[in-house]
Amino acid sequence: MADIKNKKEKEPTVLFVAEEKEPLFSKKNRKLLTDPLNDDNPITVQVLGICSALAITVQLEPSVVMAISVMAVMAASNVVISLLRNLVPNRIRIIVQLVVVAGLVALVNEVLKAYAYDVSKQLSVFVGLIITNCIVMGRLEAFALGNGPWKSFLDGIGNAAGYGFILILIAFFRELLGSGKLFGIEILGHKGVTLAESTGLYALGYENNGLMLLSPAALLVLGVIVWFQRSKNRKLIEK
Amino acid sequence: MNALRKKLDQLKKPFAKGEKWEKFAPAVNAFDTFLYVPNHTTQKGAHIRDSVDLKRTMITVVIALLPALIYGIYNSGYQHFIQLGEQFTFWDAFSHGALKVLPMIIVSYVVGLTIEFIFAIYRGHEVNEGFLVTGILIPMIMPVDLPLWMLALSVAFAVILGKEAFGGTGMNILNPALTARAFAFFAYPTYMSGNKIWVSEASNIDAISGETLLGSLAANHEVHYSVWEMFSGSIPGSVAETSVLWILVGAAILIFTGVGSWRIMLGGVIGAAFMALLFNLWGVNALMNFPWYEHLLVGGLAFGLVFMATDPVSAAQTFKGKWIYGILIGIFCIMIRVFNPAYPEGVMLAILLMNVFAPTIDHYVIQANVKRRKKRVSTATVKSA
Fold it and tell me: What parts of the sequence cross the membrane (chain B) (predicted)?
């Protein structure tokens, strides 16, 4: 008993830590934005949020909308949770996080329904499923609970950008190869009923790749992206 | 012979270590080993040296494939003339088929080997011979009228994503030839199934009954081929999978030389026959009522069991595992055929599925063996004590 008391007394009492004033876009903060794009990408390195990458990447437009929605949800929820981090008891933090994310997702859903109805119909249930996107909860748990609001904001934007970047990349290949279009515009020419009615590549006998329209194709494209990334970025290779 | 060796050594000089074209050594060595047995010696430990290396094994499989291939070439022409109702001689049919099939084989080899050489040079390892078989298998299991660029794309997909992504020959999980077919099947379904594609140059004729046997069964049409036609293979189908007769010749070569596993082949036949018999008893639609022995003769079942399921890389390795693996392929093949008319050809998906499970099967077979022997040890010690 006495020992413990002695030890406690010996410890210097910290009343006040002089925090260094950090510029808004210091090197550390910029790393929060750029790391998730490559070295710490949520999809290709952490392998999170795969379900939505499979489900909605058949076309570019919904993928872009999805990327923006996730970015809005992540940035806002990261800031909110970061502000609440010292108020929320540890035991109920997951519930609080869920409530915050769910509220934001509902908001995004309403906005989409109001201003982008067609896309919102295409995304259907997957907008609601942002709640269960592992990246959102993962960043809240791993980052927002331990960092200030500005850093959390940057982290949210960075991770959502890393997620969206891969999403759009996959959707680019899937829409181009699967239906010969980009954003719904026929890039490779028009496919008519017969060869004579077709234009562009289709006149030469080109055919759309039906495999790209199936969900497994997203995994294949993702696999190739991971392969390419790891062959370029040597530090990602596990020993 | 010595003169040739000398000439080769002289030609190889610029590719030696530290020389100008060192990087391209794998490519040159690959051609060299076609002519001479490599002069590598084992450096460490005791190894069994055998003249039957990968190259000889693969060539044996290619030889076993030839009877089916030659018949397939003839059959491609035969179906063409029969369906068009024209007069023809044996040579007409054979040359028509050859003009269709040879370009497919050339495209398959050129595309596949180019990719293999690029990867070998890039990674600095030897060019492996696995593609010798894959390259000839792929055109054999495709419809004869498949556009060549689709074939090329399928080959590229199979070699890059099916094989090189996993580390090259011997490391692949799935059979590369079937990977190519699965790719083509899902990417270009209108070119891989239906009733117009199995007969060459028939897509423009309306009144044609060129669907495969399984296709017409799935559509509840009458089958108008005799058992002998099914066995000898004069029915529409992929290039070289129709003739059970010539596939059996290939199987005999594989089993006699010990290259292919008879356990897998027999297991597959037993599994398929068992499943087909069960469906015969059930018998609700045309596919279920199709006699079990005819189920064994039609479609790619025989070809798949003999040449694809026995692929030593992607199959199970243990003896017991081979039985389980073969029987399950047979069961799944018939099950997919009967239950899903959209995929009348079940053997491709059955083999790919079992490829994925082969390591698991081996694992449990080995674990069971370990357990049994442990038990034997423990009972022995109890008895002696």
Answer: 57-74, 101-122, 131-161, 235-257, 264-284, 290-310, 322-340, 346-366
